[in-house]
Write a structure and sequence with these properties.
single chain; about 400 residues; alpha+beta; 12 helices
């Protein structure tokens, strides 16, 4: 960082004049030479965000939004999240191109939401867990572009998790019970159901407390049989009826003892009911915390964009910039005026800088303000305003 070589270097008033106040802004390492790595705190109400971005229904409408049924997990999450985020404060801990660390605090009901991005990666973390998304594509080097302007789509986004979809799935007893009832009803309708099937399924499976556990529930389903009958048939024409598959499978070896090409035995089920292919059933749902964090990601990106839209694009005359957490730190800069290069129009902020406890005239250029879009969030205290 160097003093600009063009334009005036001194203001008409020394910054130590009475009643001059400062606004704290934090530097990543406290070094005045790296003041462009500024983080800041910006608070927006829901109404302010709506004015800047438009209300959610105005920003994007999708068919999926219309199918959000009351009483579902997603509907409950949406209501829960809307209540939690009625108030918030955004802190930008880092913003260096696609490398970001954003934190939202001051929310109702939860402590924080954080978004961390790096090329092709997004980490959404906070009180509802941490979820790492990775997506390689021509438009996803900045993963905020993947989220920006969209509606929460947990079912699709789960496939982009580094740990895989099963990491965010949980056993859903209601879904398993629904599958069982559907198959029983189908068997009854088709005339394949043995007498007493519905009552037997209810007594042996649906009413069992073992249904609360996934592995035990699948064991109940796998072991259930009612009225099973099998027939062993040999290509020689002989056959036999059996009450179990094991008996039918062993018939040729133990009873028929047919050998050679003229004795090919097959076993088929002739009556009864059992559940087939139950290991392939979809009996899982996305867990509540993952659904919540999907809403958090969409909301956080919108709030971040809204905050950026309200921030100045360069130093502002009449404002003083300093360290956020340590206002007693030596670095401060008071912007008195803005001048532009006579050829390329590049702006330069002119004013006074305090460094090593001494004020000196100084100039900061556009490269000092917004290298890789890293400090466009910041604001300064109006000179003369009393610091609370």
């Amino acid at each position: 960082m160097t003093t600009a070589e063009h334009g005036p270097q001194r203001s008409t008033q020394h910054p130590e004049a009475p009643a001059t106040a400062i606004d704290p802004l934090r530097l990543s390492d406290g070094s005045p030479e790296n003041h462009h790595e500024v983080t800041s705190t910006t608070a927006l109400t829901a109404e302010e965000g709506g004015v800047l971005l438009g209300q959610p229904e105005e920003r994007r409408k999708t068919p999926r939004e219309a199918t959000l049924k009351p009483g579902t997990d997603e509907a409950r999450v949406a209501a829960h999240f809307a209540n939690d985020t009625s108030t918030h404060k955004l802190t930008v801990h880092r913003e260096d191109g696609v490398f970001r660390h954003l934190e939202f605090t001051g929310l109702s009901g939860i402590s924080r939401i954080r978004l961390v991005t790096w090329p092709y990666n997004l980490l959404v973390t906070g009180s509802h867990g941490s979820y790492h998304f990775e997506r390689f594509g021509p438009d996803t080097e900045d993963m905020l572009n993947w989220i920006r302007g969209s509606r929460p789509d947990p079912n699709s986004w789960a496939s982009k998790l580094v740990n895989g979809r099963r990491f965010v799935e949980e056993y859903d007893r209601t879904r398993l019970e629904s599958k069982i009832r559907d198959l029983v009803a189908e068997a009854v309708q088709d005339g394949r159901a043995p007498a007493g099937l519905e009552s037997a399924v209810r007594e042996e499976i649906l009413d069992s407390h073992w249904m609360d556990d996934e592995q035990n529930a699948l064991r109940l389903v796998g072991e259930f049989q009612l009225g099973m009958q099998y027939r062993s048939e040999c290509s020689c024409g002989e056959g036999a009826e059996h009450d179990s598959y094991d008996s039918a499978a062993c018939w040729n070896l133990l009873t028929h003892k047919g050998k050679g090409d003229g004795h090919k035995v097959r076993v088929r089920q002739t009556s009864g009911f059992m559940f087939d292919d139950f290991a392939e059933w979809n009996i899982h749902r996305l867990n509540y915390h993952f659904l919540y964090q999907c809403h958090a990601a969409v909301w956080a990106v919108a709030q971040y964009d809204a905050a950026r839209a309200t921030q100045p694009l360069f130093f502002q005359p009449g404002r003083i910039y300093a360290h956020t957490e340590f206002p007693q730190a030596s670095w401060r800069f008071r912007c008195d005026s803005i001048t532009t290069h006579p050829e390329d129009g590049e702006r330069t902020a002119l004013g006074w800088r305090i460094f090593k406890d001494a004020w000196e005239p100084y100039a900061y250029g556009e490269d000092d303000w917004d290298p890789q879009l890293s400090i466009g969030q910041r604001d300064g205290r109006v000179a003369g305003e009393v610091l609370s």
